[in-house]
Amino acid sequence: MKIIDRYVSFSILRTSLGALMICTMLIIAVNMFSSMNSYVTNSVSLSTILYLAVLGTPEYLMMASSVSFLFGTTFFMSQLESNNEMIMLLNAGISYARVCRTVIIMTLAVTALFSVFSETVLIDASVEHDRLTRELFGQSSTQDSRDISLGDIEGKYIINASYYEENSQRLFDVNVIEVDDEHSITGRLEASYADYEEGNWVLHEGRVYSVLPDSTISSSFFDSYDADELTLQPSMFRNQSRNISTMAISDALDYLSRIKVIDREVWYTLQTDFWSRLFSPLAILTLVVISLLMNYRFKKNVFLFSIIQSLCTAVVYYVCEMVVTIMCSQAILDPAFSVIIPTTGTLVLSLLIRVIGKGNA
């Protein structure tokens, strides 16, 4: 059985990886051609163009991975039928389900590998690609933001700053309002600027106001004030409007929990993007399962009809994903359905096609 498992796994991997390389190179070529006018206008050197292509390669690999493994699986399964190899396996006591189990185990390993790849190499390359692109075309490369107001998730304080500088991780014109459990103001901190140092925010050149038990207010100046109660990470102050897909997972979860309280409509959009980020590698497993559920018992042109059948179902999957994602972003559905509905719906459709195909065989 190990020989059969190796034969099935390596046959699919060989074809899928070959298709993946070809598709990735085509995407790189198209992207470079479409950006050529910008490169020429801004006098970008050849080495920089190639470096941008390398930085974009991880994203292109993710884009082409699911379709490539769909092709590889469909090609292998269709060859089993057209070359009568499936009959040989059945006569040897190896069922179709046993072959599918090997394919699914192999695909689970590939999906896990791409999940790790997307959370490490892909994110780092995307951030660097965006930074370099902005610099080349005259745009700001920082994530600075203005007029920031954030609240602690426990409701203990509200912080406002006029400006956040990402390079130095510094806040300017800082105001912190401290609140007790009864939502009464207990104090206020004002500072010219605040720096994030060794896990804490340190306020500089400011004044602290405190409400005393007799309801009077005391104040004092300070040159430096270590604000241990300020637990917000610097990432919370960045311009995150387009970066939920590249934030660290812990920062993204923290950011989503805060934005859910502050702005529910924005949360739907960001949460949908976050679900898409986490489960985008799941498309590889989904399309491979679709391929396994297809009916390969065509009398002629097995490979051609199998590819057409698989690709049509894959188109249904991506169209369904697009429509449901839009609905989730518009707060019509819960963001989790952007993953659940396309996956389960397409698999059910593939299963029905297989059952109907068996009935007509």
Could you characterize the architecture of this molecule?
- It is a single chain.
- By secondary structure, the protein is an alpha+beta fold.
- Strand 3 (170-179) and strand 4 (185-197) form a beta hairpin.
- Helix 8 (282-293) packs parallel to helix 10.
- The model has no long low-confidence stretch (mean pLDDT 84).
- Strands 1-2-3-4-5-6 form a six-stranded antiparallel β-sheet, with no helix packed on it.
- It has helices at 2-34, 36-41, 46-82, 85-91, 96-136, 249-262, 264-279, 282-293, 302-329, 337-360; strands at 145-151, 157-165, 170-179, 185-197, 200-211, 217-227.
- The chain has ten helices and six strands; from the N terminus they run αααααββββββααααα.
Q: Could you outline the blueprint of secondary structure elements for this entry?
A:
Blueprint: H1 2-34, H2 36-41, H3 46-82, H4 85-91, H5 96-136, E1 145-151, E2 157-165, E3 170-179, E4 185-197, E5 200-211, E6 217-227, H6 249-262, H7 264-279, H8 282-293, H9 302-329, H10 337-360
Antiparallel strand pairs: 1-2, 2-3, 3-4, 4-5, 5-6
Oligomer: single chain
User: What is the CA-based Rg, rounded?
Assistant: 27 Å
What is the typical, i.e. mean, pLDDT?
Answer: 84
Secondary structure: helix percent: 55-70%
